[in-house]
Amino acid sequence: MIASGNDYALEAQFELRRGNLAITANIRVGAGEIVALLGPNGAGKTTLLECVAGALAISNGHITISGATVDDPGAGIWQPPENRQIGMVFQDNLLFPHMNVIDNVAFSLRCNGHSKKSARRKAAEVLLFLGVAELERKPIEELSGGQTKQVAIARSIIQEPSLLLLDEPLSGLDALASSKLRAFAVNNLKALQIGCLLVTHDSDFVVEIADRVYVLESGIVTEFGQPDDLRPKPNTPYVADFAGTNSYNGMVRNGQLVINHSFQLQVANLSTVGPVNVSINPRSISLHRNASQGSPRNNLPVVIDSVESLGDITRIVTYEPTPLVIDITTISANELNVRQGEHLWATIKATEIDVEPLAL
Amino acid sequence: MKSPPSVQRLPLVVRLAASTGALFLIIPIVGLVGKASWSSLLLDLKNELVLDALQISITSSIAAALLAVLFGTPLGIAMARITNKWSVVLRSIVLLPMILPPVVGGSALLFALGRNGIFGKPLFQTTGLILPYSWAGVVIANLFVALPFVVLSVESGHRLLDRRYELASASLGAGANRRLTSITLPLLRPSILAGGLLAWGRALGEFGATITFAGNMPGTTQTLPLAVYGALETDRQLALAISLLMVSLSLFIVITMRQHWWSHR
Tens-digit pLDDT profile for chain A (360 aa)? Predict the structure, then answer.
């Protein structure tokens, strides 16, 4: 392994092909930083994790874990999974079914030459630290989905790896187990200061836990930054959907902006022509019972699809004829008394619509 | 869970055919049991010839089953992992003893390992070891027919195994040796045991390869099946008694196997 004095838990430049998907991505995880990897199914997120873990090899580029290069085809470097300083939590956990909880957790210590007794003692300490000491003696098949995930996390962090890979840790859990596990992960992973690369679809979880986000679409990083940065100006419809922002592909013709061939918008200072990406911050849209009067405004008829309270803010999703995500204060939502199925008017100021030409 | 009777009920034709099939398997056993003279059964079996044959059968079949597990497990694992063109060749070679008439297998062993055989001759010249017509020869004949059972059981068990358990253990720092001993072999335990029991049962009933390669010498190479064959000519009552003994032994293996399977799935 070649040491290069940097502070990254992971510093990687991936280039590989999986079936029809070509993946090219640069990913960095700082020491102790929690980084989320987002993207639609089939974008290559799990493939990247498998490359870092050593289940797959890249064809170009390099993977460096805490300063140690573990895969660099150009330099002829390849380290098998057991020589990489990582922990991995698999989507389906893969707890060893022939061992009970404590022996699963103690497994990596046993691999590193600890005696059975000392490995079990350390495993018990870790379970205690994570707040699940009561699971210690349980057989694997008696664990609930959430407990299984907690044990899988305990098993992979016992050696305090500098990098922890988590593949969809919330998948397959019901709402209650999912929210419990979220709290568990946020508390423990933040406290442990282990660099994490996390694949997930849960936007609340990302906002809660992640320091930084990469969005991977069709093998390419389309967006990265802090979770809060993604909201106001999403680059792609996927990010918009994820962050709860309105993003549309549109077309500018004769000074008019047409969205998805369906509705038109008045936009201030429309200087571009051709295909564009349009984004509208949900907070700059207001809702009214009647079409309001006044100059550069867009009045759009909407039918309320769902109303969800997010504390001070209430998120309203509308569908035909205009699909929008609208965030209004809960006070005004109560004043309006918005109900599902109602016909209302959404108003968007012309100056609040962001139009970017699509790079072809 | 019990399904409602309307779902469980099979058409009459199917039930008739199923009953015929079951009867066909039961009738010979009923014949054996019905013909037995239970009063003299123990006395018949308390015969030096029978006791010798029993001892040779038990020791040689267990030795063969253990050797089959010892060599068949690695072969099964290797076959499950080999993906190149040789896997087809290897699989055919492993399957052959299951299809081959045992007498032909025994002859092949004789030509290969006999005193003048391709491998037997140099073996005799260097070590003075003669395999045919010895207890070791019985074990070898048994092993030849029993080995494929372990190989196939382990191979199919390995194919059902989630290979990612090995990735999971590797990511926890387990090298190839520990992955094998702590993960792969324990997870394959049911397949190895099932294969071993099948191999034992097959070895216990071995006749053709044994008589061809090891002969039929009372006290040295005569196993229970060979003793039954010999007794049919001379003492029918004895043949019946030994047959019943074999039925009990086989039944014991079957029951062990069923209990084992039930406890694992």
Answer: 344 445 799 999 999 998 889 999 999 999 889 999 988 888 899 999 999 999 999 999 999 999 999 999 999 999 999 999 999 999 999 999 999 999 999 999 999 999 999 999 999 999 998 889 999 989 999 999 899 999 999 999 998 898 999 999 988 787 788 888 888 888 888 888 889 999 987 777 887 889 999 999 889 998 888 877 765 566 677 776 666 677 777 888 877 888 876 777 878 777 788 888 888 888 888 888 887 766 557 888 888 888 877 667 788 888 766 778 888 888 888 888 888 888 888 888 888 888 888 765
Mutate: best of A56, A82, A126, A153, partner B, most B CBs <10 A = A82
User: Domain A8-95+143-230 falls in which CATH fold?
Assistant: Rossmann fold (3.40.50)
- Tell if the CB–CB gap between A98 and B189 is shorter than 8 Å: yes
Mutate to test the interface with B, among A93, A98, A151, A155 (most CBs of B within 10 A): A98
Domains in chain A: boundaries: 8-95+143-230, 244-357
Q: How far is CA B11 from CA A130, B4, B15, B22, in A?
A: 58, 15, 6, 17
Give the Cα separation of B197 and B199 in Å (integer): 5
Neighbouring C-alpha atoms within 13 Å toward the C-beta of A216:
26
Report CA-CA distances (Å) from A74 to A26, A51, A55, A65, A104: 16, 16, 19, 17, 37
Question: Does the ipTM exceed 0.85?
Answer: no
**pTM (two decimals):** 0.75
Domains present along chain B, CATH in parentheses: 60-222 (1.10.3720.10)
**What architecture does CATH give domain A244-357?**
Beta Barrel (2.40)
